[in-house]
Structures are given as structure tokens and as C-alpha cells.
Design a protein that fits this description.
Elements: H1 3-33, H2 38-51, H3 53-64
Helix pairs in contact: 1-2, 1-3
């Protein structure tokens, strides 16, 4: 797959993933974490605010992978 194609697919996946992730994180936080002590709420939203970086970074790394060399016979 060409880099250009991977960038298109990755961009679309990021545009889908981020709103879904944010919605899920906020819903979990609003429904379950709000009744917890303030430090638990802070820790949850800190972790949830940073956790999205891992899958996004893996996706960006995949998008930037160079094309495989073309072998001609």
C-alpha cells in the first residue's frame, strides 16, 4: 500500500476514533467517576486525556511507514 493511501485511511480513522473516544471517556467520567473523590476524578480525566495518544501514535507511525520496494521480475 502506498504512503498516500495509508495517510488517507489513517486520517479517516483518526477522525472517527477521536470523537468516539472522547464521547466514551466523557460518558464514563460523567456517569461513574463524578461520584468518586476529587483525586480519583482528576486521575481518571488525566489518564483519559492522555490515553488516546497511544493508538493515535501507532496509527501515525503506520501511516508514515515507507513504501515497500517494488520488485520487478
Amino acid at each position: 500500500m502506498h504512503v498516500r493511501t495509508r495517510k488517507l485511511i489513517g486520517s479517516v480513522l483518526l477522525l472517527i476514533f477521536l470523537p468516539v473516544y472522547v464521547t466514551a471517556a466523557v460518558m464514563i467520567g460523567a456517569n461513574h467517576v463524578v461520584v468518586a473523590p476529587a483525586w480519583v476524578e482528576f486521575a481518571y480525566f488525566l489518564a483519559a486525556g492522555l490515553l488516546w495518544v497511544i493508538p493515535a501514535a501507532l496509527l501515525v507511525k503506520w501511516m508514515q511507514r515507507p513504501d515497500a520496494p517494488v520488485t520487478r521480475r
